[in-house]
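<instruction>
Derive structure tokens from the sequence
<entry> Chain with its tokenised backbone below:
===
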Amino acid sequence: MKTAKLGTTGFETAPIVFGGNVLGWTADEAESFRVLDAFVDHGFDTIDTADVYSAWADGHSGGESETVLGRWLAARPGMRDRVKIFTKVGSDMGGPGEKGLSKDWITRAVDKSLDRLGIEVIDLYFSHWPDPDVSHAETLGAYDTLIKAGKIKTIGASNYDADLLKAALDTAAAEGLPRYEVVQPEYNLYDRASFEGPLQDLCKAEDIGVVTYFSLAAGFLSGKYRTKADLEGRKRGGMVEKYLTERGTRLIDVLNEVAEGHDAQPAEVALAWLMAQDGVTAPIASATSVAQVESFAKAAAMELSDDDLSRLTAAGA
């Protein structure tokens, strides 16, 4: 499978990154194992998770996704050498001082993640959310210590805008600290503002890798949600409702038209559009079934025409 250089990390990644938020949440452990096996069998090689996944679910406290992923790695000898693992720190884990990007919490949190994952080193460690109470120097200094200790290989930032990312890059350069090499913005055919423009331009200028999250707009771009009635009983219903607008309807109509022309599913087209966007390295997408992973493979192989891309871009604008 074709791979792309992930900024200046030295890593390359297949065209789609697996979104591990579903592991232990909408996919139980057995199904998670089947889906992850299929993902690797299709030639994909990068998995994204976070310490906080899936604290939002009833009866969960965070760490569930990392734990399931760790058990899968342990049950598959040699698998660790075949996949790259991304995880994140900074979201509220519920305990005293267990959130944010302070040196104290990062130093403790990384050991918890390593333990749950059952691995010796994290390939890419993300600041999950900006922390206005902690300086870039403190956060990057903590990561510098972890890199030198062999606990993480490189770092990234999720949910940073252009100004915040530029300030962090300037701090890294001025103080000789590691810089954020990858960003993880919310970006899809519908949600465009957080990446397009200044952040996209900065990432291209600085050769920073980009892996997008909510790449399918919480499932809306699958085309299966057209009315509020379609959301009833769905675990992601609350996330999807905001897309049920006139623009959303127009976008789904065009997605369906383009998909029909390629004998494909709307989600496959939506992912193919993302992969074709300037500056995007790979979209993150979640799967809760083997069939969805097979759909990822179709998306990775799809070639949209210039007309397809223009129509989709205009419909989602």
Q: What stands out?
A: Residues 246-261 form the longest helix (16 residues). The beta strands are 4-5, 12-13, 17-19, 46-48, 84-89, 122-127, 152-158, 182-184, 209-212, 282-285. The mean pLDDT is 95.
